[in-house]
């Protein structure tokens, strides 16, 4: 069974860059590895709807619970694709997976109700939608100022022309997201790895970050 490795973090943490470097590193080391990015905006009905609301094109505010269902639906609709990739690979690297849903929706409600919502989302994804838990999640710990700079450097997104989408534009939200990831990681240290992506606020080389993640994988 393929190892499910999820790369997590706030917007602009460098997830896409680190995930790509990680797949390259694993393949160079003789392992079969593939990258899957969520949301899959162009491939699923859930992903398309997510793009609409991130671009601010949905007429009404979407509740955190409704958003969680769309993100989970996107993964549910991807099951066949994941199964096919899992059969052909030793490691599936995810650029965001289930914990993104918990950290981001949990950041939209009062902090005292966040744990309850995050537990509800975990149950929604693994119970109602029957999705597989990742074997490991990696929290890319990137300072807010560095992330903002990284977001501004990002390539054009399929769903919006804006530099910052609805979530990215909200600094308070991004801070709460980081705090939620830290809480998830410290609650289950055996399922999480926290990786600092900067040294003295200078970005580490993607290959370096990838090497640290790969070194912690079971052989
Ligand atoms: N380790 C790094 N070193 C230098 N630049 C980086 C690094 N990680 C990301 N970047 C820059 O930031 C941009 C956004 O990074 P990306 O990996 O897409 O972030 P995320 O997927 O977390 O939103 C990239 O296009 C790249 O220009
Ligand atoms: C996958 C996923 C993403 N998100 C959020 C995090 C991001 O702010 C947003 C978009 O994901 P993101 O990975 O940032 O896509 P892109 O870089 O192409 O814009 O969706 C969730 O809330 N739940 C999820 O399950």
Automatic annotation (TrEMBL):
Gene Ontology molecular function, alphabetical: ATP binding; dTMP kinase activity
One GO cellular component term: cytosol
Catalytic reactions on record: dTMP + ATP = dTDP + ADP
The UniProt record lists the keyword Nucleotide-binding: yes
Alphabetical list of PANTHER family matching this protein: THYMIDYLATE KINASE, UMP-CMP KINASE 2, MITOCHONDRIAL
Family under the similarity heading: Belongs to the thymidylate kinase family.
Protein name: Thymidylate kinase
Annotated organism of origin: Sphingomonas aerophila
The organism's taxonomic lineage, starting at the top: Bacteria, Pseudomonadati, Pseudomonadota, Alphaproteobacteria, Sphingomonadales
